[in-house]
Amino acid sequence: MRAVLQRVSRASVSVEGQVIGQTGPGLMILVCAMQDDDETKADQLAAKVSKQRIFKDDAGKMNRSVKDIEGSALVISQFTLAADTSRGNRPGFSEAATPDLGKHLYEVFAQRLAAHGVPVETGEFGADMAVELVNDGPVTIWVES
Fold this sequence. Notes:
The chain is built from 2 helices and 8 strands. The strands form 2 sheets. Strands 1, 2, 3, 6, 7 and 8 form a 6-stranded mixed beta sheet that branches. A two-stranded antiparallel ribbon has the order 4-5. With 145 residues, the protein is of the alpha/beta class. The chain has helices at 39-51, 99-115, and strands spanning 2-15, 18-23, 26-32, 55-56, 62-64, 72-77, 120-122, 129-144. The chain has one domain (2-144): D-tyrosyl-tRNA(Tyr) deacylase (D-tyrosyl-trna(Tyr) Deacylase, Chain: A). Helices cover 21% and strands 39% of the residues.
């Protein structure tokens, strides 16, 4: 699985003009399941994300996790993280999981992240979503399991 973590002061996701998920200080996470992924990969990614020390400590160094700051996460499905841009000008997405598997692993990831003590809200899998965020830093990290 792949994820892009953005340290945010706030973020929200809307479908058809209605906010369906949001977070205050914490993480906005774009997540993508790949063809060969399984629940073990979702577990590994959730554990890794929950421990990433990308928040400032009292000395201003990135030394605290989202749990350490008592932050929360907004998790958004993003199959385009599987884009293959190695040929031509149109990305290919053949490495992405099928929609059924992708949805399942997206949901498992969000549940496991919450089980690690991070409050989680989500977008709507497969929907046309509008995402708004204020990136803090900016800090954006790519993570794979």
